[in-house]
């Protein structure tokens, strides 16, 4: 009966599907902010998840004794009173009958009345909690962590908000026959014993809650999944290995792209340099033959081995030459290697 009332409350309040009804009155006090809940998928035939309470809070599974500083704010949400008819031929009606054990002989419907009064909402300060967990680690030796980690279908969650009553509340159920003009037509003279049932529960009872899933990494760090897109769970070793290989692939791809861009730029530079040389008359480019200019020499005659040209040796292919100039120096070297044509003249034209 309590479960049927909390489900009806969540269905009417809505909240975008984030709210979860408390399944049992005996466990209502375990769904408080920062409490831990295990979310488990039933099977492919049941798309809904099953939430199981635990006796632990978020602090219990963290390393260290430091308390969680995130505060909890509360405010009034609404005043809730509900009366509804439930058919005995539906799943919800069967659940109510099995839960409270009322006599349904000669009845086709059940009337459920829930009087929660003013309910309040208590929620964790998310921004403060997100800042704090960046420095905290999960204790993998905790029994709850070990048991949840061993089950791939289970996800550890933390309660972020709860909705509670503020006064003593009542739930009542009556089995009867649905009337045409009235909600129920009660057969007083034929009313068997056990057709009515009611329960009263105390103030500050939690009737609904919402959770954030936890995604726990191999090093003990963890994230709060603040959106429905992100999913919780444990990072698996094979997942971490795949992620590392993927990052390495991206790094190598980026390095290769940068090298190819550099080679392409240097090749374009050389092409532009040589085309500029060949596009001009010889009288303007062949400055090495003019009086007072630097002299082309064969470096082999001075016991200097063949090597890459300082200009065209920067491209895709390391073009080598035996010629150079002793009047020029680069990086402390008292000569430069330059092809006789056209690199020697292009180089000295730039230097000039």
From TrEMBL:
Protein name per its UniProtKB record: Pejvakin
Keyword terms of this UniProt record: Membrane
GO biological process: detection of mechanical stimulus involved in sensory perception of sound; pexophagy; programmed cell death in response to reactive oxygen species; regulation of peroxisome organization; sensory perception of sound; stereocilium maintenance
Pfam families per UniProt: Gasdermin
Superkingdom of the organism of origin: Eukaryota
Localisation per UniProt entry: Endomembrane system
Cellular component per GO, a single term: cytoplasm
Family that this chain belongs to: Belongs to the gasdermin family.
């Amino acid at each position: 009966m309590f479960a049927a009332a909390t489900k009806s409350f969540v269905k009417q309040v809505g909240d975008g599907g984030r709210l979860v009804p408390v399944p049992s009155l005996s466990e209502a006090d375990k769904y408080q902010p920062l409490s831990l809940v295990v979310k488990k998928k039933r099977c492919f035939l049941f798309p809904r998840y099953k939430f199981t309470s635990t006796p632990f809070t978020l602090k219990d599974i963290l390393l260290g004794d430091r308390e969680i500083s995130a505060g909890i704010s509360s405010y009034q949400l609404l005043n809730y009173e509900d009366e509804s008819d439930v058919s005995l031929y539906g799943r919800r009606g069967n659940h109510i009958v099995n839960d409270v054990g009322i006599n349904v002989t000669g009845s086709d419907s059940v009337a459920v009345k829930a009087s929660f009064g003013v309910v309040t909402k208590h929620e964790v300060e998310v921004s403060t909690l997100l800042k704090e967990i960046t420095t905290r680690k999960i204790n993998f030796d905790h029994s709850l962590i070990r048991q949840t980690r061993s089950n791939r279908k289970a996800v550890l969650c933390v309660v972020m908000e709860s909705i509670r009553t503020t006064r003593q509340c009542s739930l009542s159920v009556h089995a009867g026959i649905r009337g045409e003009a009235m909600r129920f037509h009660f057969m007083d003279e034929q009313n068997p014993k056990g057709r009515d049932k009611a329960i009263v529960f105390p103030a500050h009872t939690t009737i609904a809650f919402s959770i954030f899933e936890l995604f726990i990494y191999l090093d003990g760090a963890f994230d709060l999944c603040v959106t429905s897109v992100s999913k919780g769970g444990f990072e698996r070793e094979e997942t971490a290995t795949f992620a590392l290989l993927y990052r390495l692939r991206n790094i190598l791809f980026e390095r290769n792209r940068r090298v190819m861009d550099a080679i392409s730029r240097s090749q374009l530079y050389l092409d532009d340099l040589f085309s500029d040389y060949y596009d001009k008359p010889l009288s303007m480019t062949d400055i090495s033959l003019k009086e007072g200019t630097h002299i082309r020499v064969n470096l082999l005659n001075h016991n200097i081995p063949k090597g890459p040209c300082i200009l065209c040796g920067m491209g895709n292919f390391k073009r080598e030459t035996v010629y150079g100039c002793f009047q020029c120096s680069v990086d402390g070297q008292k000569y430069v290697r330059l092809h006789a044509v056209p690199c020697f003249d292009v180089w000295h034209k730039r230097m000039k």
